[in-house]
Amino acid sequence: MKKATRKPTKTSKTPPKGWPSEEIITEAERKMKGGLASKLISPDAGPVERAKHELCELFIRYRRDEEITQRELAKRLEVTENRVSEILHYHHEQFTIDRLLELLHRVKPGITVKVA
């Protein structure tokens, strides 16, 4: 019986048109190394998941606007840095909408949230 031989696979060192360069990819990988990746919302996500996702966005905006660290945000929210990391990376499965609203109220007491 004759063994089948494989043709070598050709790979290109140049990314396809429209893709980021190798340098950009390497820099992004360096920045993300060891960190918690942000979760994307599914196109078929339900209203509760969408609401939680939007609430997490408010924490991200607050942190950016206040120019504070994750550690400082954790202190202001009176929770652990791990919990803040989960919120900032959209890992909101362990949170209820009520809990996210309660935490948001700690840093933005006068905020009004509309549900559509």
Describe the protein's topology:
Elements (H helix, E strand, L loop, with lengths): L21 H11 L14 H20 L3 H8 L3 H8 L8 H11 L9
Helix pairs in contact: 2-5, 3-4
Report on the structure:
The protein has 116 residues and is mainly α. It has a domain at 46-116: lambda repressor-like DNA-binding domains (434 Repressor (Amino-terminal Domain)). The protein is built from five helices and no strands. The protein has helices at 22-32, 47-66, 70-77, 81-88, 97-107. α2 (47-66) runs parallel beside α5 (97-107). The protein is elongated. The mean pLDDT is 86.
What global shape is seen?
Answer: elongated
What share of the residues does DSSP label as strand, in percent? under 5%
CATH class of the domain at 46-116: Mainly Alpha
Classification by helices and strands: mainly alpha
Largest sheet: none
The number of strands is 0
Spans with pLDDT under 50 lasting ≥5 residues?
none
- CATH homologous superfamily label of the domain at 46-116: lambda repressor-like DNA-binding domains
If classified by CATH, what would the architecture of the domain at 46-116 be? Orthogonal Bundle
Order of helices and strands: HHHHH
The helix tally amounts to: 5
Helix content: 40-55%
CATH fold assignment of the domain at 46-116:
434 Repressor (Amino-terminal Domain)
Task: State Rg.
Answer: 21 Å
Our measurement of the CA-to-CA distance between the termini, rounded to an integer number of angstroms, reads 68 Å
Quaternary structure? single chain
